[in-house]
Automatic annotation (TrEMBL):
GO cellular component terms, A-Z: plasma membrane
Catalytic activity: ATP + protein L-histidine = ADP + protein N-phospho-L-histidine
One Gene Ontology MF term: phosphoprotein phosphatase activity
Record bears the keyword tRNA-binding: no
Taxonomic lineage from the root: Bacteria, Bacillati, Actinomycetota, Actinomycetes, Streptosporangiales
EC nos: 2.7.13.3
Name of this chain's protein: Sensor-like histidine kinase SenX3
Gene3D superfamilies linked to this entry: 1.10.287.130, Histidine kinase-like ATPase, C-terminal domain
Protein's organism: Sphaerisporangium album
Length: 354
């Protein structure tokens, strides 16, 4: 009957049984004394019986408690690193049941943590393989061009200029990539330190658009902003600007000539939303959940050419937004897709800014 009950209740029952047995004895003594007048033997017998009953109950209870706690220890020892905790069979006393549930939860969290770590490790390995390929290929191309220039194999001025331009472009692209990789490694290592301040979202949008105006102009893409200049948000202006710039550059890259990219900043109840809508014609449904993965590139961005991406921009944007305790998402909408950043109005906790 005491299975599954609290240890406190069990101990109380042991005490009550002992007291009840003694009380019953006292009643019996009183009656016996009145009937035959041999109180000494009766008292001794009754006390002995009461003591034995109490001892018996205590022994049964103690054995059971020892058994179930050993069962719990055995269950903990039996857990392998990749498994969840399996509680011992049968009902446990309430306190041990609470411990067992806490253990179950702790082991589940440990397993999830280990799985996350394994996935991260896999992604890191993939990234290293990808980086060595993506850095080596343009470096080999540049080396060939430099050698051709050095040896005088290429002499006509037009080709020489073309080679110089090409080398310059590749150097820019590579240094941009190394910079992105550095940012990403800081994000992954949890070393991204934010210095959040109240900033006007409208100003942030204007700054980012001013920075990409030349790029949009060269592609013939129109830029439009719909943001109140003073819409306040508590954020790290440089980092959030970087995330937004990555979205806007993507939008410009994937929007055909004469298309428009619209950047909006609106305040909702408990969040502010920053969105970038373009005319890319929509991202394939299969790619939608993967665009924020490190090194993911769509078909067009994989082929060599000026639009060739490194696949880091959105992973960085997500890292920065999540460091701000916000969220980033993408949907296909109208003539293209819309990336949306939402940030809590209260802003990220001011965790140890340097
Ligand atoms: N606005 C967009 N329209 C259509 N496709 C997009 C858009 N933004 C991102 N994508 C797709 O998501 C992929 C990943 O984007 P991400 O910014 O991470 O990498 P990237 O632009 O290829 O390279 P990087 O930003 O490192 O130069 C892109 O290759 C592209 O296929
Ligand atoms: Mg990009």
């Amino acid at each position: 009957m005491l299975r599954g009950r609290s240890i406190g209740i069990t101990l109380a029952v042991v005490a009550v049984v002992t007291v009840a047995a003694t009380l019953a004895g006292v009643v019996a003594i009183t009656i016996e004394m009145i009937i035959d007048g041999h109180p000494k033997n009766v008292v001794l017998t009754v006390v002995a019986i009461a003591g034995l009953v109490g001892l018996g109950v205590a022994l049964v209870v103690a054995r059971r408690l020892v058994k179930v706690s050993r069962g719990l220890v055995a269950a903990v020892e039996a857990v392998s690193p990749s498994q969840d905790f399996v509680p011992p069979p049968g009902r446990l006393p309430a306190e041990l049941d609470t411990i067992s549930k806490a253990l179950e939860q702790a082991y589940r969290r440990l397993r999830e943590g280990r799985e996350r770590e394994r996935a991260l490790e896999g992604a890191r390995r993939e990234l290293v393989a990808w980086v060595s390929h993506d850095l080596r290929t343009p470096l080999a191309g540049m080396r060939a061009m430099v050698e051709a220039l050095e040896d005088g194999v290429v002499q006509d001025p037009a080709t020489v200029t073309r080679y110089h331009n090409q080398i310059r472009l590749e150097v820019d692209r590579l240094s941009h990539m190394v910079d992105d990789l550095f940012e990403l490694s800081r994000i992954h290592a949890g070393a991204l330190r934010l210095t959040p301040r109240p900033i006007g979202l409208g100003d942030l949008v204007a700054d980012v658009l001013a920075g990409v105006e030349a790029l949009a102009g060269a592609k013939g893409v129109r830029l439009a902003a719909e943001a109140e200049p003073v819409l306040p948000v508590y954020a790290d202006a440089a980092e959030l600007g970087r995330a937004l710039r990555n979205l806007v550059i993507n939008a410009i890259r994937h929007t055909p000539e004469d298309g428009t990219v619209v950047v909006r900043a609106v305040a909702a109840d408990d969040a502010v939303r920053l969105s970038v809508a373009d005319c890319c014609g929509g991202i394939p449904e299969d790619d939608l959940p993967r665009v924020f993965e490190v090194a993911f590139r769509g078909e067009a961005a994989r082929s060599p050419g000026p639009d060739r991406g490194a696949g880091l921009g959105l992973a960085i944007a997500r890292g920065i937004v999540e460091a701000h305790e916000g969220a980033i998402a993408v949907v296909n909408e109208g003539a293209g897709c819309r990336f949306e950043i939402s940030l809590p109005v209260s802003g990220p906790a001011l965790a140890d800014p340097i």
